[in-house]
């Protein structure tokens, strides 16, 4: 790689992921202030700038369910230039994270967490 990837636009990566999850739940009408808290652990966060893919693993659970885990792989364009490949990797992160969150909440087991 040509250097570190800035995935959060200068913000802390954990906070970026939390905000993305909350945003997806709000947009889907699933976020409620007094609802059962859902815990989500990032189990894998693997960029591959050479082959052009992000692999993201998420595990979700709550006090109502022991939960489940998903893994999502999202492809993107790569480049022979290290700088371009790294830029493409960083740019593709938000889409890859969104894909992983969508896979998590569209899973039929998600309702058992609520």
Count of helix runs: 2
Secondary-structure-based class equals alpha+beta
Assigned CATH superfamily? Lipoprotein like domain
Q: Beta-sheet strand percentage?
A: 25-35%
Average of per-residue pLDDT values = 90
Could you give the order of strands across the largest sheet? 1-2-3
CATH architecture: 2-Layer Sandwich
Oligomerization state: single chain
Remind me, CATH topology?
Answer: Double Stranded RNA Binding Domain
The beta-strand count equals 3
List the secondary-structure elements in sequence, H or E. HEEEH
Note the overall shape: elongated
| Rg over C-alpha atoms, rounded to the nearest angstrom | 15 Å
Largest sheet: 3 strands, antiparallel
Percent range of helical residues: 25-40%
How far the N terminus sits from the C terminus, by CA atoms, comes to 41 Å
Spans with pLDDT under 50 lasting ≥5 residues? none
Give the CATH class: Alpha Beta
Explain what this protein looks like in three dimensions:
By secondary structure, the chain is α+β, with helices and mostly antiparallel strands. It has a single domain, classed as Double Stranded RNA Binding Domain. The protein has helices spanning 13-27, 82-106; strands at residues 38-48, 53-62, 65-75. A three-stranded antiparallel β-sheet has the order 1-2-3. Strand 2 (53-62) and strand 3 (65-75) form a beta hairpin. The longest helix is centred in the C-terminal third of the chain and has 25 residues, at 82-106. The protein is elongated, with a radius of gyration of 15 Å. 19% of the residues are buried.
């Amino acid at each position: 790689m040509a250097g570190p990837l800035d995935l959060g636009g200068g913000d802390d990566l954990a906070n970026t992921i939390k905000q993305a999850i909350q945003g997806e739940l709000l947009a889907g009408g699933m976020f409620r202030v007094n609802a059962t808290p859902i815990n989500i652990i990032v189990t894998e966060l693997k960029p591959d700038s050479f082959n052009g893919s992000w692999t993201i693993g998420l595990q979700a659970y709550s006090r109502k369910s022991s939960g489940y885990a998903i893994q999502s792989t999202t492809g993107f364009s790569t480049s022979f230039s290290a700088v371009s490949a790294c830029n493409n990797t960083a740019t593709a992160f938000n889409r890859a994270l969104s894909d992983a969150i969508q896979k998590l909440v569209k899973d039929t087991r998600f309702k058992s967490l609520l």
